[in-house]
């Protein structure tokens, strides 16, 4: 089944974990371990079919290879999904079964938080397996604030590249998704005097953003069509497609969500429309940089983490400049840079 899936291309391994008694169906995809063991979060999501979950994990694990390469950490790319509703089906039994699966993979895959898997879930897993990072148990804790910081710095760099302006005063930003990353991003943007339009399926989160950051509450069905300067998708992937790219009003896309483009070629259409696309995995690497620092031989060093996250704007600007010079889409250039590091490692 996996080999028939077009997203399988280039993957090294795929593991499936099924425990009918404890309610676990999980897929761990290991895309490329040239740079080190596979590192990437676990998503818990109520997929409508096994094939949908498979496609998602394959696309996400490939993205992790590119992300880990571009941000310069010594890890390869992998990702896991658990097919379950995190609100109603996630429980101790399911998580224990998943910990057993991680343990059986003997360190070839290290996981952390993602949509549906929280910091306390990561702690729960950590008590049963060492193959989990981003915990409070001797770990680097919640990666989301680091992701949000990197997204904020990258978003500012994109705005500067596009307009020459170094500040975000009164710049209108639409944030889709007010979860761990989205809300933290809103905080940075509000402190920088940007004007926010927000949407989330959870009305309470919208109210929170309204009261804390004076955010205007948008319509979750069409937040991405808002009349704003910048779109920051921070919910799920696949949000830009032939259905909406031609009618977007923003000049820049810079958000945290993984795999924002439904198809790779969407970036060419964005470029034709003059919309600057900040490749998601370049922008949202702050969290994985923090998680990877746990494995540093000299020990976890927050200052070093913040210095690496400070490098995200420069990496992005290099991508924007090269894309402009070569008349290419920004995501194509990001991928070339990611592959250059992997190829260099292979030929060492
Ligand atoms: P989260 O689960 O904490 O938050 C996601 C939020 O999006 C939730 O509040 C949910 O209600 C909302 N949402 C879902 N569908 C929506 C829709 N159609 N419209 C509006 N809101 C919607 O997740 P998170 O950790 O904040 O991650 C957000 C995105 O960033 C994900 O795509 C994730 O893969 C990516 N990402 C996260 C990190 C991290 O450190 N957490 C790192 C890299 C990438």
How many domain units? 2
Query: Which fold name fills CATH's third level, the topology of the largest domain?
Result: Rossmann fold
Overall strand count = 12
Bound ligands, each once: nicotinamide-adenine-dinucleotide
Strand pairing plus helix content: what structural class?
alpha/beta
Percent strand: 5-15%
* The first-level CATH class name of the largest domain: Alpha Beta
Order of helices and strands: EEEEHEHEHHEHEHEEEHEHHHHH
Determine the number of helices (DSSP H or I, runs of at least 4 residues): 12
C-alpha termini separation: 35 Å
Do you know the CATH architecture of the largest domain?
3-Layer(aba) Sandwich
The oligomeric state is single chain
Largest sheet: 6 strands, mixed
Percent of residues in helices: 40-55%
The Rg value, from CA coordinates, equals: 19 Å
Low-confidence residue ranges: none
Could you explain how this protein is built, in words?
The protein has 348 residues and is α/β, with parallel strands linked by helices. The protein has 2 domains: 6-63 and 76-126, 3-Layer(aba) Sandwich (Rossmann fold); 144-285 and 314-339, 3-Layer(aba) Sandwich (Rossmann fold). The chain is 41% helix and 15% strand. It has helices at 50-70, 92-104, 119-126, 144-163, 180-191, 203-213, 266-272, 280-283, 286-292, 302-310, 312-326, 330-346, and strands spanning 13-19, 24-32, 38-39, 42-45, 76-83, 109-110, 172-176, 195-199, 216-217, 230-233, 252-253, 276-277. The strands form 2 sheets. Strands 1, 2, 3, 4, 5 and 6 form a 6-stranded mixed beta sheet that branches. Helix 1 crosses helix 12 (330-346) and helix 2 packs across helix 3 (119-126). The longest helix has 21 residues, at 50-70. The two termini are 35 Å apart. The protein binds nicotinamide-adenine-dinucleotide.
């Amino acid at each position: 089944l996996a080999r028939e899936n077009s997203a399988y291309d280039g993957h090294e391994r795929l593991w499936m974990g099924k425990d009918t008694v404890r309610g676990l169906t999980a897929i761990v995809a290991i895309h490329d371990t040239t740079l080190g063991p596979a590192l990437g979060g676990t998503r818990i999501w109520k997929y409508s079919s096994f094939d949908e979950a498979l496609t998602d994990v394959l696309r996400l694990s490939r993205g992790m290879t590119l992300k880990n390469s571009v941000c310069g950490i010594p890890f390869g790319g992998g990702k896991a999904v658990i097919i379950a509703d995190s609100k109603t089906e996630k429980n101790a039994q399911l998580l224990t079964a998943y910990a057993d699966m991680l343990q059986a993979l003997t360190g070839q895959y290290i996981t952390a938080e993602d949509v549906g898997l929280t910091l306390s879930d990561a702690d729960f897993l950590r008590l049963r397996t060492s193959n989990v990072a981003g915990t409070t148990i001797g770990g680097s804790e919640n990666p989301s604030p680091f992701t949000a910081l990197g997204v904020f710095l990258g978003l500012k760099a994109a705005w500067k590249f596009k307009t020459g302006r170094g500040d975000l005063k009164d710049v209108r930003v639409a944030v889709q998704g007010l979860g761990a990353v989205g809300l933290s991003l809103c905080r940075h943007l509000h402190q920088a005097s940007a004007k926010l339009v927000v949407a989330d399926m959870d009305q309470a989160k919208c109210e929170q953003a309204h009261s804390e950051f004076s955010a205007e509450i948008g319509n979750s069905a069409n937040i991405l069509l808002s009349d704003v300067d910048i779109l920051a998708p921070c919910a799920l992937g696949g949000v830009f497609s032939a259905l909406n790219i031609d009618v977007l009003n923003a000049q820049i896309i810079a958000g945290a969500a993984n795999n924002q483009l439904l198809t790779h070629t969407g970036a060419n259409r964005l470029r034709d429309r003059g919309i600057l696309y900040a490749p998601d995995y370049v922008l949202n690497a702050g969290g994985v940089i923090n998680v990877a620092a746990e494995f540093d031989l000299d020990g976890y060093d927050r200052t070093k983490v913040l210095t690496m996250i400070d490098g995200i704007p420069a990496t992005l600007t290099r991508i924007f400049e090269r894309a402009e010079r070569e008349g290419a889409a920004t995501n194509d250039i990001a991928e070339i840079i990611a592959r250059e590091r992997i190829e260099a490692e292979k030929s060492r």
